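Researcher: Let's do a round of design. I'm pasting the structure tokens now; please hold your answer until I've finished.
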């Protein structure tokens, strides 16, 4: 039972709406059994901007005000989630079709409180996918339990490094921590981490500009998401192997 948690801000009504639509499409392309209970929860806190999506198992929550930090937004997403296993689902990255199935298998068999793959694909604007690239703590491609989230006191009330701080806190727990065996080939890596695809990363900006992001113009109205991929990212990664 997995809840995928997607924070987003001011993506719609402009040239970057496709990022959020691709994130939704990534969820819809997951090749896992229909018996697996799963959901994608999108939290949009853009005042005056309503996001709508009628895709199956996708739930959008629109707030009329902006949350103070990205950490607050991630914590609220956990509270909104229906299930006990929690997966960050950033609104500008691509989760490849094996991500959910792979994660749930690891959570079911090993029963960890925190699990993440050994490495992610990396895609920078205008370049080919790379599989020999350090993408940091990889919390963005992880799965953790609600109990572990409670044990560390949730995400820190900060923006830009709240995921790194959460990773550090979870790794310090005396809980059952697992990473995927290092021998797993890149063909099984479940995540495509993108950089430079928009002026701001992960709906807040990793350069500490969360407040400035909130001062940017907002296209107001109701926006319907039409999930799609601009290209076949699975095939794009496969070609690099």
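Researcher: That's everything. Go ahead.
Model: Designed sequence:
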């Amino acid at each position: 039972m997995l809840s995928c948690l997607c924070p987003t801000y001011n993506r719609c009504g402009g040239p970057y709406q496709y990022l959020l639509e691709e994130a939704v499409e990534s969820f819809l392309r997951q090749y896992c059994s229909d018996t697996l209970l799963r959901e994608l929860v999108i939290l949009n806190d853009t005042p005056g901007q309503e996001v709508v999506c009628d895709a199956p198992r996708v739930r959008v929550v629109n707030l009329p005000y902006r949350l103070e930090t990205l950490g607050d937004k991630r914590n609220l997403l956990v509270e909104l989630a229906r299930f006990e296993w929690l997966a960050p689902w950033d609104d500008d990255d691509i989760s490849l079709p094996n991500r959910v199935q792979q994660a749930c298998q690891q959570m079911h068999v090993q029963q960890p409180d925190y699990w993440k793959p050994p490495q992610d694909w990396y895609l920078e604007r205008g370049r080919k996918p790379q599989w020999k690239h350090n993408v940091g703590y990889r919390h963005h491609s992880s799965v953790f339990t609600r109990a572990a989230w409670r044990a560390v006191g949730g995400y820190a009330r900060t923006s830009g490094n709240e995921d790194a701080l959460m990773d550090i806190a979870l790794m310090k727990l005396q809980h059952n921590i697992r990473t995927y065996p290092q021998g797993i080939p890149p063909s099984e890596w479940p995540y495509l981490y993108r950089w430079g695809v928009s002026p701001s990363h992960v709906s807040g900006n990793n350069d500490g500009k969360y407040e400035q992001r909130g001062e940017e113009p907002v296209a107001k109205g109701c926006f319907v998401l039409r999930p799609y991929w601009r290209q076949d990212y699975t095939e794009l990664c496969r070609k690099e192997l």
